[in-house]
Batch of 2 targets.
Target 1
Amino acid sequence: MRRLLGIATAVWLLIALVASADAVSAQTLSNCAPRADAVSALGDVFAEEVVGMGVASSGDVLIELWLNPATGTWTITGTMAGGATCLLASGEDWQAIGRAIQGDPT
C-alpha cells in the first residue's frame, strides 16, 4: 500500500510539473538543454531509451518517458516547442505493471 501511495504521489507531482512546464519558458528552467545534448546524455550516460511519449494538453510540450530496463533507471523529459528539452523527473527501480490496478490493491 505504501508503494502505491508513493506511485500516486509521483504521478500527481508529474502532472504538476507538466502544468508548470507549460507556463514557464524553457529559458528560465535550469535543468534544460538543447534536445540533441539531452538525448545524447540519456542514451550515452544512462543507456536509457524512449518507451513512451505524449503531447501535453497545451500542445507545445512533448513529454517522454526514458527507461533503462536493465538497471531500472528512468527519466521523464519535456521538450518545448522551441527545442529545449527539460528534465522533469528521474529515479530508479522502475516497475512496469502491464495493466491498470483496479479496486483495493492491498
Target 2
Amino acid sequence: MAIIIGDIHGNLEKVQAFLAHRPDQPHIALGDYCDSFFEPLERQLACLQLLMASDTVLLWGNHDLHYLNTPLFRFPGYEKEHAALLQPLLEGAIDRFRPVCLADGWLCSHAGLHSSQGHTEQELEQLISADWQQYLADHSQGFRFKSIFTFDFAGIGRLTPGDIRQVVAHDHYQNPGFVNPNFVRVGCFDPETAWIFDTQLGAVCDLLQTAADREE
C-alpha cells in the first residue's frame, strides 16, 4: 500500500498535506519538485527539504534532473540563477532519488513507459534501476529509459501499454485519475489541488479539496 503524489513544483501546501495524509502508510513522490510559474525558489527548497527529511520515496522528474552536474537534458523552466542552490542539494543527496519504484504491483515513474517490451512491472523496475546505477557510475554509457522522465501521453494520445500497471505524473491533466484499469495519472499543475493515488483504496482524490470539505 502507498500514497502517491504527482508534480510538486514548489507547492508547500501540497507537500504538507501529502506528508500529513495517512502518515502510517508509505509515501511516494513522482518528481518535479523544482521550477514553478507560481512559487519562488525559497518554497521550492523548502519542499525539497521537507520531503528529503521524511521517509518518502523520491523519484526524479525532468525538472529536477536538469539541475544535476551532468544533466540528461535541459527543459523549459530551467533557471540558471537557481542552479547554484538546487544543484548541490540534489547532487549531495543523489542516492535519495530513484528513477522508478514498485508499489502494490504499480510501476511508479514520473512520465511512464509507452511499452513494457514483454516485461513485468517487477522486471522493469529492476532493469531501469540497474541502468540508472550504471549511468550514475559512467555518464558516457547513457541512460536507455530517459523517456520515463519526458514521455507525453497527453500530447500523443493514450498509447498506454495494457499489460502493466502504471502511476504517472508529468503532464498537466485537467482530470487526474484512471485512464484505464492499468493506468493512473496524478500529474496536475493547478496550485489549488494536490491529487494523490491511494493504492490500498484504489482511488484518486484531491487532498486540498478533501481538507477544505472537512473544514466546512
